[in-house]
Specification:
The chain has 115 residues and is mostly beta strands. It is built from no helices and 11 strands. Helix content is 0%, strand content 54%. The chain starts with a strand and ends with a strand.
Amino acid sequence: QVQLVESGGGLVQAGASLRLSCAASGSTISQYTMAWFRQAPGKEREFVASISRSGGTASYVDSVKGRFTISRDNAKKTAYLQMNSLKPEDTAVYYCRARAASDYWGQGTQVTVSS
């Protein structure tokens, strides 16, 4: 079983960048597909990006393509989400998920983008 802790969120102005980290403990992450989701106030949690176990394949929701980059370092047991050109509509709590036979979630990190 893996435990996940997100970090790196904060309050930034539109156009700024942030890098979120998802640190795992209790297990290596190499066996998991890693993904980032986000949930804005009053909205459903939505998929943002995912990356394959080897890191060779990544997928993104259309609204972040070209601005966000997901990556992973299996040796460091950490996944990342580099977010550039942030927009106010990116404001949300960002969650990390590890998926194998089961799903494991972190507690989330708040990202707030002011206009």
